[in-house]
What does this fold into?
Amino acid sequence: MSSHRKARSSNHPLTRQALRVGLLAAGFAGVATAVPAQAATGAAHAAYASDHVFTHADRAHHTRTQDSFTVRQFGTVDATGVRNQANAVSAGCSADDHCRSVALSFQIVTVAGEHTHLNASNYSDAANKECTGCQTLAGAYQFVVSTPTAFGLDAATRRQLDDIHHRLDALTRSTLPAAELKARVDGLAGEVSTVLRDAVAHAPKTDAEPTVTLHRHLDGWPGH
It folds into this structure.
């Protein structure tokens, strides 16, 4: 039996430390909550959301691939809880009859406020279960945009993100080897970070600087 589990990692080197963000005292759990995307205006409020991608490949379904690319603009908030997760499983296949399971989740969250409390979790897990020669990849990428004053992504920024989303769809459906797929997806994550940093450069100026923080967890078999 071949089984692979990998513990949750800390932030990727691309991660920049978020400012003005404290820890929310209590965590949260559950499925995605319907919090509508909105311009960053209005009174402060609490918001939370969860995004989760899961794929399972086996002898009956040799290839299973799925990705998610969500943008959640919460506006001015007092407290925010966000969770992003990707899980991929390959089970019961062989080297001569191998499986491929790919789950990728990109989550973009924008929050505004001088003293926002944030609880952000980002996790991925790829597992091979009695699956010799199978390729299994799970990647979770969470981007947190924090600005001191009300801010929303403009139409030009959304078009750039839509283009990256389309390319992520194509990569997810591709037959690239796991190692190359990882590198290409990391490249798209870098593009998202650049687009978001360019966007916040035009945010209203205050004493506090806007930040873009990337949390990355990529788990894969083979070639961890």
